[in-house]
Design goal:
The chain is an alpha/beta fold and 287 residues long. It has 3 domains: 86 residues, Orthogonal Bundle (Arc Repressor Mutant, subunit A), CATH 1.10.10; 100 residues, Periplasmic binding protein-like II (D-Maltodextrin-Binding Protein, domain 2, 3-Layer(aba) Sandwich); 90 residues, Periplasmic binding protein-like II (D-Maltodextrin-Binding Protein, domain 2). 43% of the residues lie in helices and 21% in strands. The protein contains 10 helices and 12 strands. The strands form 4 sheets. Strands 4-3-5-12-6 form a 5-stranded mixed sheet, with helices on both faces. The chain has a 3-stranded antiparallel sheet with strand order 10-7-11, sandwiched between helices. β1 and β2 form a beta hairpin. α1 packs across α4, α2 crosses α3 and α2 runs antiparallel to α10. The radius of gyration is 23 Å and the shape is elongated. The chain starts with 8 loop residues before the first helix and ends with a helix.
Amino acid sequence: MIGFTMLDVDSVQAFVAIADNKSFTRAANELGSTQGAISVKLKRLEERLGHRLIERTPRLVRLSAQGAVFLQAAREFLEAHDRAVAALSSSRRHFTIGIAAHVAGPEVPTLLARLNAHDPGLTIEVRIDNSCTLLAAFDRGELDAAIIRRDEDRRDGEVLGPEHFGWFATPQFEYRRGEPLRLAALSPTCGVRAVCTRALDAAGIPWTEVFLGGGSSAVTAAVSAGLAVSTFSYRLAPVGTVEVSERFGLPPLPSSEIVLHSTLTDAKSRAALRTLAAAFKEHRSSI
């Protein structure tokens, strides 16, 4: 009978990861394992329960009817296990992570909540700033990890996904070619600002900055109010704006990569960070 079946924590964890990711590969990445090992753990759990939990085809991974029933209980089982383990620890672990402002989309709070559920014994301090500032802080040892836009002079770091940029303004924004383009840009230390101003200079397009040195919220406000054009990642462009490069004859912008830098050595903290990185990759792959 199922009521007397002994559940294996690793197997239940594998099942929940597959259910959340809808992918054996992404589940394996999240758990720092391999697809083969994840499959073996799922099979072991299904055999113990006497039910198929996951239906798998070449194109689709989804919960079976029994898997859908079991999922919430499986989450509660893992949460109880984590609380029990955390209760034996005399001190909470802590790490500080920097996330670049143009990377920190609306999904970040959800990802951090998911990480907290995965490891309730971990306290995460998050710092939001531009990539250049965060990379410098990471190099000085002020951050344990950083998720930033790749620096042109650095090839280290784990790639989490591509980042594509465009020129955005409101549909009502007016610009006459030959006149200086009203540009809302971040601080002079922002790498994205440097990319867009170099592109304008190379194309021979005059420009003038408004809200000079403003933060990301000031830039968003200026663009949303129809006062200026700015460069945004396609996934983070303000609501109500449109891409205007073709309309105004603005130069294409090079794509970049989002990378993870880390100096964490504690095994449990590294596992938590892998969970965050896997979730970040999953979100970006669905865009």
